[in-house]
Task: inverse folding
């Protein structure tokens, strides 16, 4: 059952054990340390509430996994604790990148 | 609270959760008059639109939308305002075939001036409103509910709070014998394989996959860069990065029940079971298609507080986060943000939503109804051809 207790000072939410990202439940500042469950990470950028943080090191072109499912891929290497968003992730489908690649092939 | 559902009985075992008198202009030029009639009446509703009888690639889709909207079981009666074109007559004919409860037609060509139409319309509307108010609700089976699932202005909490809470309520309704419909093809792209795996037959699973593939082909054909529109700027600000991510969260609205079928835009929804309807991601076009399909109540989850509603379908707004729910309480019926706040569990909020759907079905007004959010939008696929 999904029950997130703020009294536990939970700052991030991991939705599936396969995920390499977590959802921030509060605004995160640079240098903030998150120790939660088996996780110990330091926030690398300012991350707004609701946005994603990398909980594992993600290499360029690796899949971004949320809810245990692939939601896109990294366009650059992403360190643990880094903000994961449109600046370093692209969807796998319906993106210009994909169309351009198909045209080149 | 009583768990008994009550509704307005219609022919063919259809049920209305409301008893509206709808003033429906069948030409854009009649929209103002229809609105005037509704505003001056004692409780009729009207919609405005921009269709002027064009016969083009969208003709069938538009005819289907108007006839289904008119015949929605939430309408006690529909007053059609027409100029008398064959297209308009086709709409009225189709609405009758769909089992419209009561139809009245006012023709400008016969009545002459707009003021004569307005006067005659007001008289008819008030007499129908009086009849509608005299009709009582009676005990109804769960199959009287046809629930539409909608999400608009998604944020990163949508897929964690409001959408899965709707999934819990939808599963319970489907189990009891109601119909529940997931729409928005744009927003299942990337999650269609998960939904297809829940289809009752492999054929229906393949249909779900094909519906999304068809959409994807049309977008690629147009050469549209979807990243410009999906996820939307608001979604991205809320923390959603890719269309697939939005879809994975959006699909949570459909709970875990099996899919009994795939419907085209504005197809009539069967009495029981979970369905997928091919609708556009645009909220108002999607809601209009739901109404045309006979859906009589909608749950609309929102991360950013979209006010959109319908003239004839009660639309329940569920907030995904507490910040927004507290900021605009006049738009939000239920706050599912409590799940992320750690105050309530998913099953608790899902249960609250189920109870609220029942209360609304039984007549409790939603915030969108109180605020008179009567949006209506035709869904078009082709360039408009002027006659």
Result:
């Amino acid at each position: 059952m999904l029950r997130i207790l703020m009294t536990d000072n939970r700052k991030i939410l991991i939705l599936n054990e396969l995920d390499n990202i977590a959802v921030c439940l509060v605004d995160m500042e640079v240098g903030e340390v998150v120790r939660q469950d088996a996780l110990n990470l330091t926030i690398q950028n300012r991350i707004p509430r609701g946005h994603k943080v990398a909980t594992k090191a993600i290499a360029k072109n690796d899949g971004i996994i949320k809810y245990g499912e692939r939601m896109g891929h990294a366009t650059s290497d992403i360190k643990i604790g880094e903000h994961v968003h449109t600046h370093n992730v692209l969807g796998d489908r319906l993106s210009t990148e994909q169309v351009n690649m198909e045209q080149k092939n | 609270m009583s768990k008994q559902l009550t509704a307005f009985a219609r022919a063919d075992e259809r049920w209305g959760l409301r008893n509206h008198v709808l003033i429906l202009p069948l030409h854009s030029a009649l929209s103002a008059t229809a609105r005037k009639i509704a505003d001056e009446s004692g409780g009729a509703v009207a919609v405005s639109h921009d269709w002027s009888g064009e016969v083009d690639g969208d003709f069938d889709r538009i005819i289907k939308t108007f006839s289904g909207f008119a015949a929605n079981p939430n309408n006690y009666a529909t007053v059609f305002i027409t100029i008398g074109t064959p297209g308009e007559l086709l709409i009225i004919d189709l609405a009758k075939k769909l089992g419209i409860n009561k139809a009245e037609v006012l023709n400008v060509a016969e009545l002459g001036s707009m003021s004569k139409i307005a006067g005659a319309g007001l008289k008819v509307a008030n007499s129908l409103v009086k009849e509608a108010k005299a009709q009582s609700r009676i005990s109804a089976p769960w199959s009287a509910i046809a629930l539409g699932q909608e999400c608009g202005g998604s944020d990163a909490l949508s897929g964690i709070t409001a959408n899965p809470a709707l999934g819990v309520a939808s599963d319970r309704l489907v189990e009891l014998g109601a119909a529940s419909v997931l729409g928005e093809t744009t927003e299942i792209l990337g999650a269609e394989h998960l939904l297809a795996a829940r289809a009752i037959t492999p054929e229906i699973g393949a249909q779900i996959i094909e519906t999304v593939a068809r959409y994807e082909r049309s977008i690629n054909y147009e050469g549209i860069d979807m990243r410009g529109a999906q996820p939307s700027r608001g979604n991205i600000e809320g923390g959603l990065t890719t269309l697939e991510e939005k879809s994975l969260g959006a699909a949570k609205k459909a709970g875990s029940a099996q899919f009994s079928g795939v419907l085209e835009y504005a197809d009539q929804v069967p009495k029981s079971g979970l369905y997928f309807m091919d609708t556009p991601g645009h909220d108002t076009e999607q809601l209009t298609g739901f109404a045309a399909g006979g859906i009589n109540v909608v749950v609309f989850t929102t991360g950013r507080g979209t006010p959109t509603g319908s003239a004839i379908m009660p639309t329940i707004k569920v907030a995904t986060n507490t910040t927004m729910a507290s900021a605009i309480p006049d738009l939000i019926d239920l706050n599912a943000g409590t799940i992320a706040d750690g105050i309530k569990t998913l099953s608790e909020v899902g249960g609250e939503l189920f109870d609220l759907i029942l209360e609304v079905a039984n007549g409790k007004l939603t915030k969108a109804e109180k605020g008179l959010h009567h949006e209506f939008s035709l869904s078009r696929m082709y360039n408009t051809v002027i006659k």
Notes: The first strand of chain B starts at residue 6 and ends at 9. The mean pLDDT of chain B is 92. Chain B is about 40% helix and 15% strand. The CA atoms of residues 155 and 236 of chain B lie 8 Å apart.
